[in-house]
Structure formats: structure tokens, C-alpha cells
Amino acid sequence: MPFCPKCRGEFQDWVKICPDCKLELVEKLPSLPESVNDKLSNENLVTIARFSHPEEAYLASAKLESEGIWSFLADEHTVTADWLVSYAIGGVRLQVKESDAADARRILSLSKTDVELAAGTGRKCPKCGSTDIKYERFSQSLVFISWLAIGFPLPFFKRKWKCNSCGYQWQSPS
To answer: Are residues 108 and 66 in the same domain?
Structure first.
């Protein structure tokens, strides 16, 4: 099977040109330079964010990759197959190389602020002032326990805001 020398994609025998890169396909891929292999294998991955839904993780990963930072999504297929497992395993983990972690956090915090301002909420944590907050409609632990006990998730309402930075929880005034 032929391969694209640039994107390293594998194609059917009848394909002669890579549809993405517009390059002629080759029968054998050139090996990666040793420096690339060493850099990829020796650097640890760190988790910089967790998401309840894979779609949110895909958007964050795309934002990072558009800025030139390689990222990896851990447990995305597990959560997609059974969304209730998301609560048990802590959601989809967005991971980057240790050397890119600080830049990735900066990029994602900027994008979260932009999204929040665009949505018009303007909410902040009353304790620490962070904009990294989320609204929790259900008590995740009680929903998961009910699913384990009776085989069906019951909606135990929580209706609280939670700060991802300091962990503070509060109810917004009606």
C-alpha cells in the first residue's frame, strides 16, 4: 500500500496522489530522524485539562494544535462508548508534552475567557475571582451511585456553580 511522505497517511493501491498534501505517494515511508524519535519518546505527558464531554476536549485540542502544540486525548473513546463512565474516570483528559504545558494552559485560559465573554455570562468565582468555573446541574457522585445500585441513573439535582481553580461551590441568586 502506498504512503504519503508528508502526512504519512496510508492509501489504497489505486490512489496515486495524497488528497490532502497533493504529493505523489511512495511505496515505503522514510524513517523519522533520530532527534524526532528521541524527543517524542523521552518526554512525559501531563494532563492540563479534563472534560466531561469529548466534544469539548476536541475543541480544546484543536485550539492547541492550531497554535502549534501537539496534544493527546486520553479516555475519549471510553467516555464516548459509555458517558456514565466519564464521572468515574474523571472525564476526557487533555495531555501535552511537559515542555509545552505552560504555553498550553495559557492558550486554553485565554480561549475560555474569550468564550465566556462571548457567551455574555461574565461570572467569576466569589472566593478567588477566577473565570474557570462551571455550572453543575446534577450531583455526579449520587447519579453514578444510583446507576450502580439500580442500573439506571436518577437525576439528583445539585444546581451549583463550582470553581475549577479553588474548588469553591456556591448557588447563584435567582
So the answer is: yes
